[in-house]
Amino acid sequence: MAFHFIANPHLHFGPGTINRLPELVSPHGNTLLLITGAQSLQKSNHWPRLLEALEKKSIRVYQAVVETEPSPSMIDEIVLKYRDQNIDVIAAIGGGSVMDAGKAVSAMMTKKESIMEYLEGVGNRPHDGEKTPFIAVPTTAGTGSEATKNAVISQLGADGFKKSLRHDNFVPDIAVVDPELTLDCPPEITAACGMDALTQLLESLVSTQSSPMTDSLAFGALEILGEALITATTRHPHDIVARTNISYASYISGLTLANAGLGVVHGFASVIGGTFNIPHGVICGTLLAEVTRHTIESLISMDPNGPALDKYAGAFRRLHPSKGLESPVESSRHLIKLLTQWTDQLNMPGLGAYGVAFKDIDSIVGATGQKNNPIQLSEKKLSQILQSRL
User: Fold this and answer.
1) Residues 6+ apart with CB under 8 A from 344
2) DSSP state of 126
3) By the 8 A CB rule, do 182 and 272 touch?
4) Whole-angstrom distance, CA of residue 33 vs CA of residue 165
5) Of 62, 278, 315, 360, which sits 20 to 30 A from 156 (CA to CA)?
């Protein structure tokens, strides 16, 4: 029962909470660096109201725009541009990439070196955790970055990578999760982000580093995620109840991944995302069912009475509560069918649509870590997973 748990010092959750941002900024000072995506926020009704409210609080606003997944050079450029502006607080309003960029800029404002020096597996400097106060405001529901202690930094290309800048202090000081900000999110982005959250909940649930607390949180979030995701993507995109449930599940997935770790899907995503220009949620969403299939079938053959299979069964019963009580093996196999159905229903594209080819499989498999997966899959199985989702 011994475990360690990290979470935001403050969470403001619910429709309309974006309106509290100016009052949350004020205690930190009157100079704000606002990091946003390229267009969606600026085109919304929230943008002029937010700027007016910040002005009324006499808060000076600088803005940096993040249009792609953050790269080392992007972070270095933003830090260099604003380091001498006496920034009191940083707020990132956007998807996972925007929040990761904000988290990284917050961490690097106190440093003179490039972020490359501090990235896991790239640099060799440990970060001391000193940062500029940081507020995370998600406009999509999926990555859970508003609750995590790492910023994912990407460099595309043959020698590309996805690596983390990580420290317990990098958990955002304040998370403002307003489901209203997700209402205009297109179906394909809602689907990919929602499948990312689902992946994080499932992988952290069966992680070898899970705890009673992460299990409880993950099970609770799974119970409200499934139906809400299908509703928001295929039936009623402006259903605020569905959007609220997805936003909650996404936030919880950030907490559970930060405290329990992840598995093979994210092992694949780290490698594929560093080589190909594929949205992270698409990689997770398209691989989740097949990775779960091979993991469950391997568990059935090796350890049919183990705790991981019980957890997969419990996940299915929460995602599909209308089913009757069945054995863990039967329920786990029903979970595979349900995830496969959702992959098709949500039109998750294959990796081949983004340029991944058969010739790339061996190199991807060779570089893929299995992280905290409940069972280690053979290279043959990893290869079969990729082949099935090209």
Assistant:
1) none
2) P
3) no
4) 20
5) 62
Contact 263, 208 (CB under 8 A): no
Determine phi and psi for 350, rounding to 5 degrees: -75, 160
Whole-angstrom distance, CA of residue 271 vs CA of residue 365: 9
Residue carrying structure tokens 């420290």: 167
Place of tokens 């930060």: 258
Asked whether the beta carbons of 260 and 225 are under 8 A apart, the reply is no
Q: What is the pLDDT of residue 160?
A: 84
Mean pLDDT of 126-150: 97
Nearest to 120 by CA among 97, 147, 75, 153: 153
Residue 8: both structure tokens together: 């935001």
* Closest to 143 (Cα-Cα) out of 79, 189, 87, 205: 189
A 10 A CB-CB count for 276 gives 17
135-165 burial: b if 16+ Cβ within 10 Å, else e: bbbbbbbbbbbbbbbbbbbbbbeeebbbbbb
Count of residues making up the chain: 390
Q: How many CB atoms lie within 10 A of CB 368?
A: 21
DSSP designation for 235:
I
23: left (phi over 0), alpha (psi -120 to 50) or beta: alpha
C-beta separation of 136 from 146 below 8 A = yes
Joined tokens for residue 181: 């900000």
Question: Please, what's the b/e burial string for 370-381 (b: 16 or more CB within 10 A of its CB; e: otherwise)?
Answer: bbbbbbebeeeb
The rounded distance, in Å, linking the Cα atoms of 389 and 386 is 5
pTM of the predicted model as reported, rounded to 2 decimal places: 0.96
Q: What is the pLDDT of residues 16-68, one digit of tens each?
A: 999 999 999 999 999 999 999 988 888 888 999 999 999 999 999 999 999 99
Within 10 A of 187 (CB to CB), how many other CB atoms are there?
A: 13
Could you give phi then psi for residue 33, rounded to 5 degrees?
-100, 115
Q: Find, among 226, 249, 138, the residue nearest to 183 by Cα.
A: 138
Task: Assess contact for 37 and 66: CB atoms under 8 A.
Answer: yes
pLDDT per residue over 59-73, tens digit each?
A: 999 999 999 999 999
Residue 137 belongs to what H/E stretch?
A: strand 134-138
Pairing of strands 161-166, 89-94: unpaired
Residue 286, phi then psi, degrees to nearest 5: -80, -20
Tokens of 58: 């006499």
